[in-house]
């Protein structure tokens, strides 16, 4: 609750700063416009110093305002906004069977519910970004429980109630790498190991065990730092974000809920 309140307060401060910056920019615009316009108080006529100069100044100011606004908005990339966009832009990828993904109301908010029974399919959203810039991945999630037969170090136990991927395409398909943020079954929180099927995907335990099952948990990961830590080098350009709840290897059943997902330049 404290973490969620902190995030909400931080977001409000950022929004206020953006609004204040916008009004400062608008104020400067009108001061400059007043300088461009010459007022004859005796005749109450308003005439332009030079119409060509005015048009040029207005055009420059418009472009500056537009790019300034775009820059402010670009501080965050909304990866998932389930309440307003649903699953728009998300593509399904099946590995074995089908995990059921549905937009639902849960605890008073619109979220994505995932339910898997001896199945594994995920959702992927193609999204190109530079981790050096948009380095912070933020989301919240909830699970019903972890998978008792799950084991991060074996192929037979490679199932998770919830996971979020950041995918880094390579020039060739075998060069593709991924950060795989998992709600771990046995791996301690903060630990990381290679995926049992490929060392190109690194499992990072963001949460671990069933202690927080049934609770919404907010997460924030530094993609740049995580990639450097597990792969030992700077990351290339990222190409997608993915979500998956899977139980195909253990044959178990799992349910998870995913809230909105955001990429940000700031904490």
SSE diagram, text form:
Layout: H1 2-36, E1 37-40, E2 45-48, H2 51-73, E3 76-80, H3 82-85, E4 91-96, E5 100-106, E6 109-117, E7 120-129, E8 136-143, E9 160-168, E10 177-184, E11 192-194, E12 201-208, E13 217-222, H4 223-231, E14 238-246, E15 253-264
Parallel strand pairs: 10-12
Antiparallel strand pairs: 1-2, 3-15, 4-7, 5-6, 6-15, 7-14, 8-13, 8-15, 9-10, 9-14, 11-12
Walk me through what this model shows:
The protein is α+β, with helices and mostly antiparallel strands and 267 residues long. It folds into two domains: 2-73; 78-264, Sandwich (Jelly Rolls), CATH 2.60.120. Helices cover 27% and strands 40% of the residues. The chain has a seven-stranded mixed β-sheet. Strands 3, 5, 6, 8, 13 and 15 form a six-stranded antiparallel β-sheet that branches. It has a two-stranded antiparallel ribbon with strand order 1-2. A hairpin with a 2-residue loop joins strand 5 (100-106) and strand 6. Helix 1 runs antiparallel to helix 2 (51-73). The longest helix is centred in the N-terminal third of the chain and has 35 residues, at 2-36. It is globular. The two termini are 17 Å apart.
């Amino acid at each position: 609750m404290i973490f969620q309140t902190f995030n909400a307060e931080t977001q409000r401060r950022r929004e206020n700063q953006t609004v204040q910056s916008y009004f400062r920019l608008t104020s400067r615009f009108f001061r400059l416009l007043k300088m461009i316009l010459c007022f004859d108080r005796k005749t109450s006529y308003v005439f332009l110093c030079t119409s060509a100069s005015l048009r040029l100044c207005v055009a420059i100011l418009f472009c500056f305002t537009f790019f300034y606004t775009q820059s402010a908005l670009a501080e965050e990339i909304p990866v998932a906004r389930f309440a307003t966009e649903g699953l728009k832009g998300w593509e399904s990828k099946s590995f074995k069977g089908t995990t059921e993904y549905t937009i639902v109301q849960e605890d008073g908010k619109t979220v994505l519910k995932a339910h898997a029974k001896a199945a594994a399919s995920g959702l992927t959203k193609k999204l190109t970004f530079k981790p050096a810039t948009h380095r912070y991945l933020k989301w919240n999630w909830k699970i019903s429980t972890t998978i008792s037969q799950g084991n991060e170090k074996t192929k037979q136990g490679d199932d998770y109630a919830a996971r979020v991927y950041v995918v880094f395409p390579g020039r060739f398909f075998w060069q593709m790498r991924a950060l795989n943020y998992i709600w771990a079954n046995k791996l301690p929180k903060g630990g990381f190991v290679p995926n049992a099927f490929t060392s190109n995907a690194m499992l990072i335990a963001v949460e671990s065990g069933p202690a927080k099952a049934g609770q919404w948990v907010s997460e924030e990961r530094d993609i740049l730092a995580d990639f450097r830590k597990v792969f030992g080098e700077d990351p290339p350009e990222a190409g997608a974000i993915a979500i998956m709840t899977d139980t195909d290897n253990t044959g178990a059943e799992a349910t998870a809920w995913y809230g909105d997902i955001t990429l940000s330049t700031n904490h």
